[in-house]
Amino acid sequence: MPVVASALAASPIAPGRLDGWLIGSGTLAESSVGHVTDAADHSFDSQEFRTVLGHFPTGVTIVSGMHDDEPVGFTIGSFTSVSLDPPLVGFLPMKDSETWASMAKGGSFCVNVLSRDQADLCWKFAKSDDEEHRYDEVKWHPAPTGSPIIDRAVAWIDCNVEEVYEMGDHYFVLGRVVALDADADQNGEGPFPLLFFKGTLGGFAAEG
Ligand SMILES: Cc1cc2nc3c(=O)[nH]c(=O)nc-3n(C[C@H](O)[C@H](O)[C@H](O)COP(=O)(O)O)c2cc1C
What we know:
Strand content: 35-45%
Mean pLDDT: 85
Structural class: mainly beta
Low-confidence stretches: 1-19, 25-32
CATH class: Mainly Beta
Number of strands: 14
Bound molecules: flavin mononucleotide
Strand order of the largest sheet: 5-4-8-11-12-7-6
Number of helices: 4
Distance between the termini: 35 Å
Radius of gyration: 18 Å
Helix content: 10-25%
Number of domains: 1
Largest sheet: 7 strands, antiparallel
């Protein structure tokens, strides 16, 4: 069933409004563009879904933003590049995420790709009920949109929110890239990325 890809390829999607951002409402023909049905036509439970999908390794990012002049952010593995021209990226926050709700109001975000030396930040920014202390002892400076760039990140990608789509229990947040950089030391030996696989963190090792 087409979900994200179809929604992004479709134009225009009749928009609805939620939290101030456009949401694809899935009214294109009678297809499932921008719309996910509730049909339970599968033979697995959510635990099995998590276990199998956990076999797909991801990078680890902290998506940052500002809310009432305070930095906010959360650990996100669902970051992806979307389009080169125009330059678009995206990520998927849970619909009930407090961090996304506060970040959305600012209209921008910055994706910080974590290094293998930043595993502590991965867990710190994923912990619930402690959101106000996530930036304690974390060095950062503002990107052009004002969102935090975290020191020693492998790369950062600064974006304005272009559109937000509803996708099951998540949103797909589409961002238009306004600035980006990698290899903070500019010496060609920038920090190595942090990876997440089957619930654990590790590093990258070149094999070929
Ligand atoms: C490696 C890793 C990747 C994660 N990726 C996502 C993600 O893509 N989307 C998401 O909603 N939560 C993701 N999380 C969980 C959030 O970081 C966590 O739910 C966090 O508490 C959300 O903050 P909030 O409750 O303040 O919104 C991930 C956590 C970890 C450890």
